[in-house]
Amino acid sequence: MTDLNTKVYYDDDADRSQIDDKTVAILGYGSQGHAHAQNLAESGVDVVVGLREGSSSRSAAESDGLRVATPVEAAAEGDIVSVLVPDTVQPAVFEQIRDSLDEGDTLQFAHGFNIHYNQIQPPEDVDVTMVAPKSPGHLVRRNYENDEGTPGLIAVYQDVTGDAKEEALAYSHAIGCTRAGVIETTFQEEVETDLFGEQVVLCGGVTSLVKQGYETLVDAGYSPEMAYFECLNELKLIVDLMYEGGLEEMWNSVSDTAEYGGLTRGDRVVDEHARENMEEILEEVQNGTFAREWIAENQAGRPSYTQLKDAEENHHIEEVGRPLRDLFAWSDDGDEDEETAEA
Ligand code: NAD
Ligand code: MG
Ligand code: MG
Ligand code: MG
Ligand code: MG
Fold it and tell me: Whose CA is nearest to atom 23 of ligand 1?
């Protein structure tokens, strides 16, 4: 096995005394918030959930047995204040709670956007850390309940107490991340790789590839249903194989014809031109162009976002896919529990 140049932290590397006597304020009770709050509480850590009066999440947190206060009250009580409201509302929430932070408290995030792009300027006398599970919150919660872990990242932006990293590791332990493994990164690296990955490969790149492939077949006269299966539906099988065993397992599992065709044609589709575009998009992430654009888009009430979202929802592939998915058995049961392909 090749040596990794990154250290991976596990349960034994965490010192739970760094968190066990502290109160953690969880601001927001969405995807990450509900998972962090419940996992911490079940690990024996004192948790208070900070939600606006009238927030629809209040009843959810209360019926999960958690203590609920306003964001300001929770932040005042918390030794660690974990900011788990949507990234776009974090700056406004921070303005409300800034004065409730005490010297030596920790302001914690699960994504570095607002710190890295200076949308939040933390007080100088608090620790600023990140604990970012590499997974949606419902899986963070479910894995914990199943005595399993969720891989995660930690990062320290500001360390006034000298214990910022140890505390982040202890928090990772209490939400179940060190069961699976945690690596250390920086706010800058987490933000830039996260934005690049979702724009170029995971969300943007893949959907464009799917749509272009689908349109090419349909425009050439093939049936939309066939195009849907070939260009969208089968993607899951391929991704599952890559997830389990990298590119190698995928190539080994498809036919030799598929392998030869893919190896000779793939780079013609995603060619040097695509690579240049990727580099340009990375630069927009690095120099803040994308962040400024997204912040302005939000300030303007999301006009382009709404339009693009609408167009995507009405794309032909979606109109074909909706009824088609209803006809087949895979859409009957949930998603994540499905068997994935084995080698
Ligand atoms: P979410 O959209 O699921 O959570 C929203 C919650 O925040 C709501 O339930 C509500 O309780 C609260 N909220 C919404 N608007 C509010 C407002 N105006 N004022 C106060 N509270 C408000 O958020 P999320 O996806 O859990 O993201 C939280 C953080 O976690 C973000 O920094 C995100 O980047 C990060 N993160 C998310 C994931 C993920 O898979 N969802 C993964 C890793 C990191
Ligand atoms: Mg406090
Ligand atoms: Mg990511
Ligand atoms: Mg992201
Ligand atoms: Mg085929």
Answer: 86
